Amino acid sequence: MSAPNKSYDPVEVSALQPEELDRARDEALAAIASAADLDALKRARLAHAGDRSPLALANREIGALPPQARAEAGKRIGAARGAVGQALKARQAELEEERDQRVLVEEAVDVTLPWERGARGARHPLTTIRERMADVFVSMGFEVSEGPEVEAEWFNFDALNFKPDHPARTMQDTFFVGSEDTGLVLRTHTSPLQIRSLLTKPLPVYVVAPGRTYRTDELDATHSPVFHQLEGLVVDEGITMADLRGGIDAFVNGMFGEGLTTRMRPSYFPFTEPSAEVDMRCFVCRGASAEPGGEPCRTCSSEGWIELGGCGMVNPRVLVACGIDPDRYSGWAFGLGIDRTLMFRHGAEDMHDMMEGDVRFTLPFGMEI
Ligand code: PHE
C-alpha cells in the first residue's frame, strides 16, 4: 500500500473535478466567443488561459493528486486547455480578418480624387522672355548687367548727349522723383546702362542690360507707364555698323528662327550716330501678307515687318563722356522692347495683361525656363 499523500488538499483539487473543469472551459469558451474585438479577446485570454486562470491553476494541481489519478486528470485538463487554446486561435484569426476588412474600408484612399488643390503660380512670361532674349547674347559672349530704376538725370540724359532742352526731359515724358531739381528720375530707357557699363568695366565691353523702364504714358492696350527694355552695347576697336547688323541678325535668328532678314530705317537718338530703327521680317507670314493678294497677317498687321527697337553706332560724345578715346574705340548699341517682343511673339494683344498679374494669363506660358 502506498503511503497517503500528505500534501493532498481536497479543496484545491476540487478544481480538477470534471464538472469544475467543464465549467471553467465553458466560461472560457463563452468569453472568447463574446469577445467583440482584439482587445476584448486579449482580456479573455489573460483571464481564461493566463497563468492565473482557473485552468492553469488546476493544471498546477495535478502534481498534488495521487499518482493513479494523475493521468486521467491530466488528460481532462489537457483537453479543456486544448479546446480553449483552439477557440482563442480561431477567434483571433476571425477578429484580425474583421479588423483588416474594416481598415480597408475606413482607411481607403481614393486615388482618383483631385490633388494639390492649392493654386500654383507661374513665372511671369515677361521674366521668362527677358531671360531668353538676354540668353541669345550671353551665348555670343555678352555679359548681363543691371542698374537702378531710380536714376540720376546725368546717367539717363546728360551723359547720353541729351541737351538740357531736349523735349524728352520734360515732365510730359519723364517721371521725376520728388521735385524736378532732385536730379533723380525713373529711368526712361535702359541706355543709362551704357554709361554705367563704360564707366565701370574694362574695355572691350559686350553687355546686355534688361530692365524696367518708365514713361508718363497712360495705360492702354499698347502703352504702359512701366515697360521693359533690353539694352545692348558693344565698344571695342574696329567696330562698324556691319557688326551692329550682325548682332541684331543673330538675335533675330536665335529668338525667332533661321533665315529671317532685318532692315534698318534712318532715325535719330542723341547717343547714337548714325541711328536707326530696326525691323525684322515677320516670322509668321515672312512678308507674304504685304504682297498683293497675300493673306492678312495678325502678327505684323500685314506690314510684312515687325518693329524691334532703336539702334545705332555709339556717338563719340558718349565715349568722350566716359573717358574713352573715340579715335581708338567705336561701338554699337540697341534698345529692344521686351513687352512688345512678348506681345508679337506670343500673340498677347493687351498690355493690361502684362500688368495685372492674373494667373489666367501667366499660366498658359507654363514654366518655361
Ligand atoms: N534708348 C532708346 C529708346 O528708349 C533705344 C536705343 C537704345 C536707341 C540704344 C539706340 C541705341 O528709345
UniProtKB/TrEMBL annotation:
Q: Its Enzyme Commission number? A: 6.1.1.20
> What is the cofactor note?
Binds 2 magnesium ions per tetramer.
Please give the CDD domains that the UniProt record associates with this protein: PheRS_alpha_core (cd00496)
Q: Which GO molecular function terms does the record list?
A: phenylalanine-tRNA ligase activity
Query: Which PROSITE patterns does UniProt cross-reference here?
Result: AA_TRNA_LIGASE_II (PS50862)
Catalyses: tRNA(Phe) + L-phenylalanine + ATP = L-phenylalanyl-tRNA(Phe) + AMP + diphosphate + H(+)
Ranges for domain Aminoacyl-transfer RNA synthetases class-II family profile come to 127-364
Give the keywords, sorted: Aminoacyl-tRNA synthetase, ATP-binding, Cytoplasm, Ligase, Magnesium, Metal-binding, Nucleotide-binding, Protein biosynthesis
Q: How does it assemble?
A: Tetramer of two alpha and two beta subunits.
Q: What is the recorded name of this protein? A: Phenylalanine--tRNA ligase alpha subunit
Instruction: Give the species.
Output: Actinomadura yumaensis
* Taxon lineage: Bacteria, Bacillati, Actinomycetota, Actinomycetes, Streptosporangiales
Q: From the UniProt record, report the name of the gene that encodes this protein.
A: pheS
